[in-house]
């Protein structure tokens, strides 16, 4: 049977992005479950600020590859840091470029499940950002996974070796990955 394809999109523009590290952990879990996973680190996309002109003249190999992967995907994980109570502009900019999928039939991410992860620096952070991400998913006609999560204390989640150290976060990200895998399978088959 054809494998479940998942696109993991996110991170920040920082070289050591904890958002990207959590996204990579979710990707690993999805691979363990048997999915084919494509990770798009938004830092490597190097997209200019969105305009229709920029989109039309786009000759970006990484972005073209991402769009192809999105078109063939059964589900997604989005991960953004919380910047001033919402998604980062860099994350939102990539989302704006998904306007390229507006004329698809069906458009955007229609009826595909999306797990959202919002990472903030403060103790109880990320919830406002998570709400924005769910709104973005719905506007792209996708289905936000119920176990989508907000994570606080973003930069202290990892040990010196870069390993996720919070058992609670590991449990919640595992739950999201398992749920997304099942949703993707049920909605595809
Ligand atoms: C410009 C900027 C704005 C931020 N705004 C918030 C905020 O509103 N709430 C919060 O909890 N953390 C905020 N933070 C902290 C980041 O969300 C946090 O450090 C996060 O882990 C960064 O993710 P990264 O390591 O992937 O870059 C902000 C950080 C920056 C750089």
Describe this structure as you would to a colleague.
There is one protein chain. The chain is α/β, with parallel strands linked by helices and 189 residues long. The chain has a single domain (5-188), classed as Rossmann fold (3-Layer(aba) Sandwich), CATH 3.40.50.360. Helix content is 42%, strand content 19%. It is built from 7 helices and 7 strands; from the N terminus they run βαβαααββαβαββα. It has helices at 18-32, 42-45, 52-56, 61-71, 89-97, 127-139, 167-188, and strands at residues 5-10, 36-41, 75-83, 86-87, 113-119, 143-144, 149-151. Strands 1, 2, 3, 4, 5, 6 and 7 form a 7-stranded mixed β-sheet that branches. Helix 1 crosses helix 7 (167-188). The longest helix is centred in the last third of the chain and has 22 residues, at 167-188. It is globular. The model has no long low-confidence stretch (mean pLDDT 96). Bound molecules: flavin mononucleotide. Flavin mononucleotide binds at residues 12, 14, 17-20, 81-85, 119-122, 125, 154-155. Flavin mononucleotide is lined by residues 12, 14, 17-20, 81-85, 119-122, 125, 154-155.
How much helicity do the residues have? 40-55%
Please tell me the overall pLDDT: 96
CATH topology call = Rossmann fold
Structure class: alpha/beta
Identify the quaternary structure here: single chain
Question: Could you say how many structural domains there are in total?
Answer: 1
**Spatial extent as radius of gyration:** 16 Å
* DSSP strand count: 7
Order of helices and strands: EHEHHHEEHEHEEH
What percent of residues are in strands? 15-25%
Low-pLDDT parts are none
- Total helical segments: 7
Bound molecules: flavin mononucleotide
Distance between the termini: 10 Å
Classified in CATH, the superfamily is: Flavodoxin domain
Query: Major sheet, described briefly?
Result: 7 strands, mixed
Shape: globular
Can you identify the CATH class?
Alpha Beta
